[in-house]
Amino acid sequence: QVQLVESGGGLVQAGGSLRLSCAASGRFSRINFMGWYRQAPGKQRELVASITRDGLTDYADSVKGRFTIARDNAITVSLQMNSLKPEDTAVYFCRVAAPSIYWGQGTQVTVSS
Questions:
Q1: Residues with Cβ < 8 Å from 94, sequence gap 6 or more?
Q2: What is the CA angle 65-70-75, rounded to 5?
Q3: Which of 3, 29, 32, 34 has an alpha carbon 20 to 30 Å from 54's alpha carbon atom?
Q4: DSSP β-bridge partners for residue 11
């Protein structure tokens, strides 16, 4: 079983920055994939950014050039979010494949205009 603990959400003005962090704990062999997803009210959950065990990254078009995903160590992934926009407001979830899929509980990000 793997537990994911997310931190770093909050309220920020448009143009500001936030850094999300997700730490995995528990029993797992290795983490092959770590990603951040978000879900805004009334919308489907969508991929924001992901990083593989080999360091390959992928970003949603809407966040390219503004967000950066990084694996801080073998069990922690961060998402640096700059130039935030009101449309970035959502609950952000960490997702890990280790190799089974695990989700974090979510952290609220609110960007005011």
A1: 4, 6, 20, 22, 34, 35, 36, 77, 103, 104
A2: 160
A3: 3
A4: 110
pLDDT tens by residue, 44-70: 999 999 999 999 999 999 999 999 999
- In the chain, % of residues over pLDDT 90: 86
Q: Looking at residue 89, what DSSP letter applies?
A: -
Q: Residue 40 has what pLDDT?
A: 97
Q: Which amino acid is residue 19, in one-letter code?
A: R
Burial class, 80, CB count within 10 angstroms (exposed 0-12 / middle 13-18 / buried 19+): middle
